[in-house]
UniProtKB/TrEMBL annotation, chains A, B:
Superkingdom per UniProt: Bacteria
CDD domains: ACT_HSDH-Hom (cd04881)
Annotated positions binding L-homoserine: E190
Catalytic activity: L-homoserine + NAD(+) = L-aspartate 4-semialdehyde + NADH + H(+)
Residue positions binding NADP(+): L9, G10, L11, G12, T13, V14, G15, G16
ACT domain segment(s): 355-431
Ranges that cross the membrane: none
Family: Belongs to the homoserine dehydrogenase family.
Protein name, as recorded: Homoserine dehydrogenase
SUPFAM superfamilies for the chain: ACT-like (SSF55021), Glyceraldehyde-3-phosphate dehydrogenase-like, C-terminal domain (SSF55347), NAD(P)-binding Rossmann-fold domains (SSF51735)
Pathway: Amino-acid biosynthesis; L-threonine biosynthesis; L-threonine from L-aspartate: step 3/5; Amino-acid biosynthesis; L-methionine biosynthesis via de novo pathway; L-homoserine from L-aspartate: step 3/3
Biological source species: Spiribacter salinus
Active site: K205 (proton donor)
PROSITE patterns: ACT, HOMOSER_DHGENASE
Length: 436, 436
């Protein structure tokens, strides 16, 4: 069969990785897909710069629109990143009747609803496996592998940088700031690490995962985000003492009144597989009915893993070239006319268990006061640690683990605890999920 | 759109689970697949027996051939198990131009080459996601998600019964026979547990996984099988002391001279995720180039997980109804004309590290003799434990961990060690894989 002709937008790390993969595994891919896939035309910001990949067999130029408009390109792969220009190019490709494959999580999370509507109008596919958890085929697993299931919740380590930092804090006892600086030196974290450590990047990915899990439109603005900058090595150590590890999770779950979407540090029982995913690796756990829990683990970023997902999408698109659109896998797993308007609820309506740490006056009766407040609020306690005071200190750290409780209740109880005379400063609150 | 009409062969645990799933999640499935899926005609060995599922909206009868021949059924789901009758029915459905979905690992491992050839001649699909690792979408992940990769090796816990037994031996310190008896009481293990604990069931699944990973024909007869019946709680405990856990793995890997296919007890470093997959759960780790390692975890058996995989296949088949066969995902991941004749090598050509345990005379110089034999054979030692003798015993247990070595070399070295006067009885040998 004829080679498939691809137009590639962006020839940076991931773009170069994709070209290299298509060349290195050309035989393997052809044996599987039934035909080779060739990048015939590419756009790069600096076309003359030295590259990590060969550009011998392709036209290479500055103008990305020329690649989109080239009648020779059948599929457009968007790897330029950013949002505005990427959106413009994607919509233009769609209008030209071309299928699009993208690794751009921000683009899909923020503008996916519009992009998919236009793609539907034009009868083309938009593949975005590479946008979530890098090389892990998680979009495919949820959209297709779990197609017979009703998904109850999904929880994932979907940002490698924050997972690397938390792993180092646990295993090397190093502080957040120090590890972050190292991650920046190693190139794991961007110069501006906000997207990673504040949870924005994870929230983009969670937005996409939640839509394909529950069949709801993409709603990035409804995701509750908390970063890991406030996590101390003390908390990591206390959690460990209690049999837990702290992970930065993206979680979506059916709550009583709707769907909760949140990214925050979370204590996980150390025997949970997800708690043992360390370093820059990613993993997503999905609990589905009737299947039960499944977990998907792998490299969540980098040129090679992302290129692996881009090529998987390319082969899928090629296979579906001749398929009438209504028989293709729907963009968001559910048929476009069947998306649900189930509300996304605020954090006040979410139930989780809690890890609480506070500094209390070292005197009799304080623990009784604190637990009394929780008890009055109907919050059960699972475990308590009260530490010895540090030499010369007047306060002692008290750590409590609660049972599951509605967040609004916990907010009120925490205010009441902080108002106690014997409690100094503010509480450290970290949510706990057992994933059971 | 019109409902898809399915003919179901076998209404036992999995068949009933499939009917229940299609009914309970009918709305969810319709929203995803674009049309409902109905079982319209089913065959059961005892049509009048009480069932776990409703049979109200289907014809139900004894004769499975009548279901296959019914012009009303568009897809045949084969869940009767066994090999001969299942094969006859599957081939008949294929000849009638019907797509087939099966959960029958023995059928595919033993007769898949023939079945796929006939299916190709008749332009129909044969889905077998449910045949390997139950509800984990591992076939889809490898065939489609990793389509751009060259797979280097794959290692999986693909039999829940043997994993349950090994987990109990580790965590409860119980002996093999005792746990096996309990597994039989609980219904995890068959009355004849040979298929599970001797590795036959795992070998069926490994045969299938190896074919889709490497693009080779199904070659069940080339799989080297070892069971877990010889593993003692002593070995489980010594392995633990060395930082390892013993798992019953199916492994396929590119060795120097071909592909190795083997099922055997294996020591894994305890920090490996795969080492932490406990109880009846399954997991498969795949190392691919350029993606690196990925892992897929979930329930490997049971009515619900298997039904989940059957329904995923049904939806895939429905989506591909109108797709010309050359654009469908190939049965064994690679185009039929592109299967490889790469040889499957025997165990003598496989490299692994080794755990060795022997009983040695409690006298000076014995350890030097043993390590001398290994050293002469060019086998490096990674760790040694020599235990105190039990009260009144004349021998002491010696445990050695070696580096990777060609199996044929290790065979010779073990014979030489067993021939030493100071070594009593035969060596316990368990392979070690670091999966790194």
């Amino acid at each position: 069969m004829q080679p498939v002709k691809v137009g590639l937008l962006g020839l940076g790390t991931v773009g170069g990785g994709t070209v290299n993969l298509l060349e290195r595994n050309r035989d393997e891919i052809t044996r599987r897909a039934g035909r080779p896939i060739d990048v015939v035309h590419a756009a790069a910001r600096h076309p003359d710069r030295a590259r990590t990949c060969s550009t011998e067999h392709m036209r290479l130029e500055y103008d990305a629109f020329a690649v989109v408009d080239d009648p020779d390109t059948e599929i457009i792969v968007e790897l330029i990143g950013g949002v505005d220009l990427a959106k413009e190019l994607t919509l233009r490709a769609i209008e030209r009747g071309k299928h699009v494959v993208t690794a751009n999580k921000a683009l899909i999370a923020l503008h996916g609803n519009e992009i998919f509507a236009r793609a539907r109008d034009n009868g083309v596919t938009v593949g975005f496996e590479a946008a979530v958890a890098g090389g892990i085929p998680i979009i495919k697993a949820v959209r297709e592998g779990l197609v017979g299931n009703r998904i109850e919740w999904l929880a994932g380590i979907i940002n490698g940088t924050s997972n690397f930092i938390l792993s180092e804090m646990l295993y090397a006892g190093r502080e957040f700031g120090e590890v972050l600086a190292e991650a920046q030196r190693l190139g794991y974290a961007e110069a501006d690490p906000t997207f990673d450590v504040e949870g924005v990047d994870a929230a983009h990915k969670l937005t996409i995962l939640a839509s394909i899990a529950f069949g709801i439109p993409l709603q990035f603005d409804k995701v509750h985000m908390e970063g890991i900058g406030q996590i101390s090595t003390d908390d990591v150590a206390y959690a460990s003492e209690l049999g837990f590890r702290i992970k930065h999770l993206g979680i979506c779950r059916r709550e009583g009144d709707g769907i909760g979407l949140r990214v925050h540090p979370t204590l996980l029982p150390e025997r949970q597989l997800l708690a043992n995913v360390d370093g820059v690796m990613n993993a997503v756990m999905v609990n589905a009915d009737p299947l039960g829990p499944t977990l998907y683990y792998g490299a969540g970023a980098g040129a090679d893993p992302t290129a692996s997902a881009v090529v998987a999408d390319l082969v899928d698109v090629v296979r579906e070239f001749t398929l009438e659109p209504e028989n293709r896998v729907p963009y968001l797993a559910f048929q476009s006319h069947s998306l649900s308007d189930e509300p996304v609820v605020g954090m006040e309506a979410v139930d989780t268990a809690y890890y609480l740490r506070l500094e209390a006056q070292d005197e009799p009766g304080v623990l009784a006061e604190v637990t009394g407040v929780l008890s009055q609020a109907g919050i059960s306690i699972e475990a308590v640690i009260q530490k010895q005071p540090a030499p010369g200190a007047e306060t002692v750290p008290v750590i409590l683990l609660t049972h599951r409780v509605r967040e609004s209740k916990m907010d009120a109880a925490c205010q009441a605890i902080e108002a106690l005379d014997a409690v100094h400063g503010s509480l450290v609150r970290i949510r706990v999920e057992t994933l059971a």
